[in-house]
Amino acid sequence: MSDSARHVALSAAMERMAPPGIRLGCRLIREGDEALLLPEEASALRARRPAARRASGAARALARHLLKNEGMADAIIGRSATGAPLWPPGVIGSLAHDDEMAVAAIARAADVPSVGIDVEPADPLPDDITALVFHDGDAVGGVEPMLSGRTLFSAKEAVYKAVHPLDGEILGYEHIRVDFARGRAVTTTGHGIRLFFCLHPRVVVLAVSTEDQPSSIL
Ligand SMILES: CC(C)(COP(=O)(O)OP(=O)(O)OC[C@H]1O[C@@H](n2cnc3c(N)ncnc32)[C@H](O)[C@@H]1OP(=O)(O)O)[C@@H](O)C(=O)NCCC(=O)NCCS
């Protein structure tokens, strides 16, 4: 499959998985994408390696495009001291990138408390990493067995991104329980999460915090 066919296929898969009120998108990471960082964003990311700045540039250009579609032009997406993206007032969101693809999720803060997103290649997770990620209580039924470890890993990363900005707690894999069949996750710190995911052409997991339940989607 060509780069552009993979992009089209992932866009369609993410459109199907997106719950109401949350905008999702993906963008191939290309040479020179670091130039897409606005000056304020570039200064927050100056210390990073070129490949990481390129991926962050692709993710921020994508998120800016999603925000523009919601009527917010030229938004600056900064970076907090803990690494979380900083959104314009009234917006929440999340970014992720693997070696080839950047993904983003945005929503109105009035509708959704917090989101986290992750993207991974649709390849089996090595057994030694699966052993670190999987804990008693994780239920991976309902996900293609070859990709269950990879999807569990991605779900826990997405959950971490959704909940860390809420309370600053550093969580390990053992602090998050996932149930794919129910589309739910919980943390030992008391957060409830809804999960939305696709497996092909890449694994993408969206985690949506259910606290305060301000939205009809929760
Ligand atoms: C947040 C974290 C999970 C990101 O994972 P990653 O594989 O390095 O990178 P990803 O491409 O998936 O995501 C990167 C994006 O996550 C976002 N991010 C980073 N730290 C974040 C945080 N504390 N809260 C929310 N989002 C965060 C950023 O937008 C970042 O992109 P940017 O640097 O271009 O702005 C990881 O860096 C981390 O902090 N881990 C510590 C805790 C942990 O790993 N626990 C085990 C898993 S539960």
From TrEMBL:
Residues 46-107 form the 4'-phosphopantetheinyl transferase N-terminal domain. Its cofactor is Mg(2+). It catalyses: apo-[peptidyl-carrier protein] + CoA = holo-[peptidyl-carrier protein] + adenosine 3',5'-bisphosphate + H(+); apo-[aryl-carrier protein] + CoA = holo-[aryl-carrier protein] + adenosine 3',5'-bisphosphate + H(+). Residues 114-198 form the 4'-phosphopantetheinyl transferase domain. GO terms for molecular function: holo-[acyl-carrier-protein] synthase activity; magnesium ion binding. Keywords: Enterobactin biosynthesis, Magnesium, Metal-binding, Plasmid, Transferase. CoA binds at residues 60, 118, 157, 161, 171. Mg(2+) binds at residues 118, 120. GO terms for cellular component: enterobactin synthetase complex; plasma membrane. InterPro entries: 4-PPantetheinyl_Trfase_dom, 4-PPantetheinyl_Trfase_dom_sf, 4PPT_N, Enbac_synth_compD-like. Pathway: Siderophore biosynthesis; enterobactin biosynthesis. Involved in the biosynthesis of the siderophore enterobactin (enterochelin), which is a macrocyclic trimeric lactone of N-(2,3-dihydroxybenzoyl)-serine. The serine trilactone serves as a scaffolding for the three catechol functionalities that provide hexadentate coordination for the tightly ligated iron(2+) atoms. Belongs to the P-Pant transferase superfamily. EntD family. EntB, EntD, EntE, and EntF form a multienzyme complex called enterobactin synthase. PANTHER family: ENTEROBACTIN SYNTHASE COMPONENT D (PTHR38096:SF1). This is Enterobactin synthase component D. It comes from Shinella sumterensis.
